[in-house]
Each structure stands twice: as structure tokens, then as C-alpha cells.
Write a structure and sequence with these properties.
Shape: globular
Order of helices and strands: HEEHHEHEEH
Distance between the termini: 41 Å
Number of helices: 5
């Protein structure tokens, strides 16, 4: 599991970059053959785009880098369990594995609330591993929303 923590630290750096930009701090990296081929963080506010989740941006970047619409052989590391939109994109891209940090008990679609990545009706199943650096990944989200609540008061 140590290897996965090393990769998750790169995703966490992306989450920190999002926090600094007042974006929900979710970061993502994609690896292929032991190399990072894409990295991203949420840019929903910046781009005024509800689909600008870290995972979607990273998938687009990896597909461009690898010149392929399928990402077989790729692994995704993301600081929060992917939502239904992202889990669907992950499945359509045919990732081998997804490793995530914090569980999302409201919108998680990799086993918590929904299970899109391993749904029998989908044409591809993705191996999913959660809870990697869970405290750190959940902690940055908690801090972000505490700051936001304080700003509103």
C-alpha cells in the first residue's frame, strides 16, 4: 500500500492547489507504466463549468497525451471517491484501477452510495481501492468547508 500512498501524495498536491484557488480541494493524477501522464484539480469555479471535476480534466489530458480514447493500463489516484459522472467516465475510459482517498457518503459512485465502476450492466469493470490517505484527503475537504462557512457568517 506504500506505493499507492506515494502516488496519492501527488493527487493531494493537486487538491492543495485547488484549495488555494478557492475550488473544492479534490486532486487527481493518472499513471501509465509507472509514470504520471496527467494531473488535475477541480476547476468548476474557475471555468464556470459543472463538469470541470479533477477526474474529467485528468481523463481528457491523459487521453490526449496517450492519443487514445481508452485508457487501458492506466491507474487513477483521486483524493475523493468519484461521483456518478466521473465514475461513468472512468468506466467508459476502461481504467484498470482507481485508488481514492476519502469516501463520499453523499455522492460516491465507486461503492459508497452507487457502484457504477462495478455495475453488471456496464461494459467494463474497474478495480477500486478506497481509503488511501483517508484522514488527509478528508481533512482538507473539512478544512475547506469550515473556511467557506466562516466566510458566510
Amino acid at each position: 500500500m506504500k506505493e499507492h500512498e506515494v502516488w496519492m501524495k501527488y493527487a493531494f498536491k493537486e487538491a492543495e492547489a485547488a484549495f488555494k484557488k478557492n475550488e473544492v480541494p479534490i486532486g487527481c493524477i493518472i499513471t501509465f507504466q509507472g509514470t504520471i501522464v496527467a494531473k488535475a484539480h477541480n476547476q468548476i469555479e474557475t471555468l464556470k463549468d459543472p463538469t470541470a471535476h479533477a477526474e474529467i480534466i485528468a481523463i481528457t489530458s491523459a487521453a490526449e497525451y496517450l492519443q487514445s480514447k481508452v485508457l487501458v493500463g492506466c491507474n487513477m489516484y483521486v483524493t475523493l471517491e468519484p461521483c456518478p459522472m466521473c465514475a461513468s467516465a472512468i468506466t467508459f475510459a476502461k481504467f484498470d484501477n482507481v485508488y481514492f482517498g476519502a469516501y463520499d457518503n453523499k455522492f460516491g459512485a465507486c461503492g459508497s452510495v452507487f457502484n457504477i465502476t462495478n455495475n453488471e450492466n456496464m461494459n467494463h469493470k474497474v478495480n477500486v481501492y478506497g481509503g488511501i490517505m483517508d484522514k488527509e484527503c478528508g481533512g482538507i475537504l473539512k478544512s475547506f468547508f469550515e473556511v467557506r462557512r466562516n466566510e458566510l457568517e
